[in-house]
Design goal:
The complex is a heterodimer of chains A (324) and B (333). Chain A has 324 residues and is an all-alpha fold. Chain A contains 13 helices and four strands. Chain A has a two-stranded antiparallel sheet with strand order 1-4. A two-stranded antiparallel sheet of chain A has the order 2-3. With 333 residues, chain B is mainly α. Helices cover 74% and strands 1% of the residues of chain B. Classes of the chains: A mainly alpha (324), B mainly alpha (333).
Chain lengths: 324, 333
């Protein structure tokens, strides 16, 4: 009997997630139709391609941050990480370091940042929200210090290719974006490690008792997150051709909104990589569409905040009904 | 019995006990503050002057008032990231009212600021308790919304020409004690008494300790939590008055990033993130420490960008110490 009840609960959860995803996709389609009718530039190939290139670096970070959030932690320092990566890359290029080496150094630095965050959260035991809000300001401050507040030109064939190159007429960042999403999907849905993350998010104590090294898994998730943010920073540097300490400012809000939109719970244990994909698409279409309609940048923020609260509110209300 | 146990150990262990075992970090904070004064005073001859302390305490005002509100919210187990944006929005509204409708008396504008603050807090509180969204998500959303709304008036050149308004944040009693310090002390004393002696205050601690049990014990959890967010909003309004008074204008970008600073103060002062712990004495000492550090970094001529690193590092250090201190047993997961 008990098994039966649990079985239906799981089925209900699954149904709930599927109907959520359908709702999200419908919202996406509705927004797409609205913006194509409202602005004649929205549906042009050029706009769509530039929109997807721009969302690619956010998507890469979002996919990996989803893993961290499903494990029940959060990383606010991604924006600062992107700024620091971008500045360091540009300064290295200015100093004449070859492009491949720059990419390698930046990725290693991203890992180091992830290691530091992971150390604070797992070994020292700090609440991840506060720890990463603090490190966010540290990375951003270091970016400002290294660059002295100016933006540094970053022109190098390898870096150029990363954001503005294309393979078979498909922009390279889009290819990277698809690859990262595919890997994250496989890891979260088919690998042992992914199942461990879900299990930790649902109940860390039970996971520990059943033999999962909780700290190690969380630590690794933070390292991957740092790595993804560094990759995102490199792509952003390439897209804008400069290393700027302001790069990625406020990006944590956008990316975390997208992940929450996609149905990932802040407490962990729930969420899907594909949900994050729809979330990031919705926010990008919203941004791009409102920009095409000539809405002032700061007012786009209002729409973003409102969408975040509205969507999470509908989740909560429906979840409550489900539990009754 | 307990006395003999303590007597058996040396005096230095007694002292150590004060720093490691006490429930609040106040002893460690005072030690930290004394150490800091010694360091800054030995590096800069201007540190230990009346003028400098005057400016330190006058600059505490806005963060002090904000941290009063967020202490209340966090003791109740909540979180409020939107205070910086709320402060910016309310400051802009005040400045715009004084610019467009100069006939409105200053007192009325201040009341409006307080009311708008309460209203913004009410929005947060209702969304968090009635709909049941996590406070971090909610206030992250309202942070963006409040800031975005403030930018509707970005095209105006909002200077404030009212003398009364200017006096609010720039008056010094007998030329030395800033009026703003008086506000902070009054606010902190009143709130500390409220926390200690009223039913609201005790309920808040209970809710922060265990919300479910509080509900079972018959406490009106939702109402108390909404009230805490309204208080936080109210203080955002009061902080906006002081801020715009000191800067002589109300721009929409004012107060961005304030939540980081205030969070550092409150956590350093011993308010835990989960709620149920903390008091106003701790917050006050932490406030003075953070203010003195900001001031000391300026006097030591630390580059402005490096100050950001130092402040972020301090927050990390503060929460690390907090985490290590509160760790009862070996954490396995």
């Amino acid at each position: 009997m008990a098994d039966d009840r649990e079985g239906t609960a799981v089925k209900k959860q699954k149904k709930f997630f599927i109907s959520n995803t359908i709702t999200l996709v419908m919202v996406l389609i509705a927004m797409f139709i609205f913006f194509s009718l409202a602005s004649r530039h929205f549906l042009s190939t050029y706009n769509i391609l530039s929109m997807v290139s721009n969302l690619s670096f956010m998507g890469i970070v979002a996919a990996v941050l989803t893993m961290v959030m499903i494990s029940g932690e959060i990383d606010f320092s991604i924006g600062g990480n992107i700024g620091l990566t971008s500045v360091v890359a540009a300064i290295l290029i200015e100093g004449g370091v070859p492009g491949i080496l720059v990419v390698a150094i930046c990725l290693v630095m991203g890992c180091a940042i992830g290691v530091f965050n992971g150390f604070l959260v797992t070994v020292v035991g700090v609440n991840s929200i506060i720890a990463t809000v603090g490190t966010m300001s540290v990375w951003r401050g270091l970016a400002y210090t290294f660059s002295d507040g100016r933006s540094v030109l970053a022109i190098d064939p390898v870096i150029d290719f990363l954001g503005r190159g294309s393979v078979f007429n498909i922009p390279f960042p889009i290819i990277l974006f698809v690859i990262v999403f595919a890997i994250s999907y496989v890891v979260m849905n088919l690998s042992k490690w992914g199942r461990k993350i879900y299990s930790i998010g649902v109940n860390p104590m039970a996971s520990f008792l059943s033999g999962i090294n909780v700290k190690q898994v969380k630590f690794l998730a933070f390292v991957f997150c740092g790595l993804a943010a560094a990759l995102g920073g490199l792509i952003l540097t390439s897209l804008s051709m400069v290393g700027m300490p302001q790069h990625g400012q406020g990006l944590e809000l956008t990316i975390i909104s997208a992940i929450l939109l996609g149905g990932t719970a802040l407490g962990g244990g729930k969420g899907q990589i594909l949900g994050t994909l729809t979330g990031i698409l919705i926010l990008s279409v919203l941004y791009n569409g409102l920009t095409m309609l000539d809405v002032y940048y700061y007012h786009v923020q209002i729409a973003q905040g409102a969408v975040l609260i509205a969507v999470v509110a509908t989740y909560e209300v429906r979840q409550k009904r489900l539990q009754q | 019995m307990a006395n003999t146990k303590i007597n058996a150990t040396g005096w230095y262990q007694k002292v150590l006990r004060i720093f490691t075992r006490s429930k609040t970090p106040i002893a460690s904070l005072i030690l930290l503050y004394v150490l800091m004064i010694v360091i800054f005073a030995s590096f800069s001859p201007h540190y230990l002057t009346v003028g400098n302390f005057r400016s330190i305490f006058n600059n505490l005002a806005r963060f002090g008032i904000l941290s009063a509100g967020i202490t209340i919210v966090m003791i109740g187990g909540g979180f409020d990231l939107s205070i910086g944006s709320a402060m910016g929005l309310i400051g802009t509204i005040c400045a715009v009212i004084m610019l467009q409708f100069p006939f409105v008396p200053v007192g009325v504008v201040m009341v409006i600021a307080a009311l708008v603050g309460c209203f913004l807090g009410l929005i947060n509180g209702v969304i968090i308790t009635k709909i049941g969204i996590n406070p971090i998500i909610t206030t992250l959303g309202t942070l963006a919304i409040f800031r975005g709304v403030a930018f509707f008036w970005a095209h105006l050149n909002v200077r404030i020409y009212s003398r009364v308004w200017d006096a609010v944040g720039r008056t010094f009693i007998a030329g030395t004690i800033p009026l703003t310090t008086v506000y902070i002390v009054v606010i902190f004393v009143i709130l500390a008494l409220v926390l200690k002696f009223t039913r609201f205050g005790r309920n808040l601690y209970t809710i922060g300790g265990n919300e479910y049990l509080a509900k079972l014990a018959g406490i009106k959890v939702d109402r108390t939590k909404i009230a805490s967010y309204v208080i936080s909003g109210l203080f955002a309004g009061l902080a906006a008055i002081v801020l715009t008074s000191q800067l002589g204008s109300g721009r929409p970008e004012y107060g961005s990033g304030a939540e980081l600073e205030v969070l550092t103060i409150v956590v350093l002062g011993g308010v835990t993130v989960g709620g149920g712990k903390g008091n106003f004495l701790g917050t006050f000492i932490a406030l003075v420490i953070i203010g003195s550090i900001s001031n000391g970094l300026v006097l030591l001529d630390v580059p402005i960008f490096l100050r950001m690193v130092v402040k972020g590092g301090l927050l990390v250090l503060a929460v690390s110490i907090d985490a290590l201190r509160n760790r009862k047993r070996l954490q396995l997961y």
